[in-house]
């Protein structure tokens, strides 16, 4: 009921009826306004709840994206192990085959997959004649060493002695301790063994060669009483036995008999 309709109706009523009509009109207006306020409050609560849900969804989506990005970054950057290798100088004392084994292990540990980076890493571990050779080759033709396989092939053709593994194997089988101590003899055996990489000598043969090459004495006798399964086991026991013998000799040498003093009596 509008205000104009109320005014027309009030003109036909007495004073008490007018008061009642006005009070009813005001009450109806108040009730209508309260309903509007309640509706607005309900709509505001629904909007706030919707905003909270949208914010939570966006936060969860952002968290998932960050987790996925972190996982992909972890997969793109796997953990690497930095292994240092010896420098190859291009001299006869350096075993090229053993250096190739060290190089391949270091490349795998560092996870170097790019061919150019593999060649660059290999060249960074050259020294002396070998480094001079690589620099000269790169100056003449920057693309001469295009891959690690080409690099190793060129290096082998230039510096590897003819029949290098055959020579190392022959020297190993004929090796004798001679005047060297056990440590020096074991070190030479290890060196020759590391030079034979393409067709390694089996462990039992290495044990036999090492024991047979030892100088005759307590160390060799002690080893022949044992059943040994590996070269390192034989070397370890031989060095321990040699150390014990040296300690025993040092103790007996340092021992002095007590002096006898003449008391002058009968």
UniProtKB/TrEMBL annotation:
Protein name per the record: Retrotransposon gag domain-containing protein
Domain Retrotransposon gag: 121-215
InterPro entries per the UniProt record, alphabetical: Retrotrans_gag_dom
Highest taxon of source: Eukaryota
Family matches, as Pfam families: Retrotrans_gag
